[in-house]
Amino acid sequence: MKNCIFCRIAAGEIPSATLYEDDKVRVILDLNPAARGHALVLPKRHYKDVTTMPKTLLGHVMKIGGQIGSAQKKAFGYDGFNLIQNNGRAAGQSVFHFHLHVIPRRKGDGVLGLWAPGSTTPEEMQETKEKIAAQL
Ligand code: 5GP
Ligand code: ZN
């Protein structure tokens, strides 16, 4: 994809702070990090989001994400890390080339507000489960 910024970064056409590279992925530092070391795992091939990604590549991306998170912890003494992946504008995706965020965390850092726990009922859960399962 000629006009995709992450295709161009992954291919090395645009310089990036690359932490790791192999034949399938490039891992770069995010330009607007949520925390120091915030990294993105980019497949070298273009997939718009998780729905079109091959299974083996997804496995590889997650494995590398875990290794990067562990390295962030060792490098800067972080306590943990989030692996986050946005699909669709409504979910916060702004670059439509699949990428996995690896965001290092410290206890109480307030870096991410994930979700406020809501509530449901057994009846609603039953109906919800049936509706989604019917689409699988
Ligand atoms: P999304 O919102 O799609 O999940 O995440 C896109 C991420 O890519 C953002 O965190 C943004 O800071 C990062 N980003 C966007 N353009 C560039 C770029 O040209 N270089 C780098 N290194 N990161 C980028
Ligand atoms: Zn792309």
Describe this structure in words.
The protein is an alpha+beta fold. The chain has one domain: HIT family, subunit A. Helix content is 29%, strand content 18%. The protein has three helices and five strands; from the N terminus they run αβββαββα. It has helices spanning 5-10, 55-76, 122-133, and strands at residues 18-21, 25-29, 39-43, 80-84, 100-105. The chain has a five-stranded antiparallel beta sheet. The protein is globular, with a radius of gyration of 17 Å. It starts with a helix and ends with a helix. It binds guanosine-5'-monophosphate (5GP) and zinc ion. Zinc ion (ZN) binds at residues 1, 4, 6-7, 46, 97.
Question: Which helices and strands occur, and which strands form pairs?
Answer:
Blueprint: H1 5-10, E1 18-21, E2 25-29, E3 39-43, H2 55-76, E4 80-84, E5 100-105, H3 122-133
The chain binds guanosine-5'-monophosphate and zinc ion (ZN).
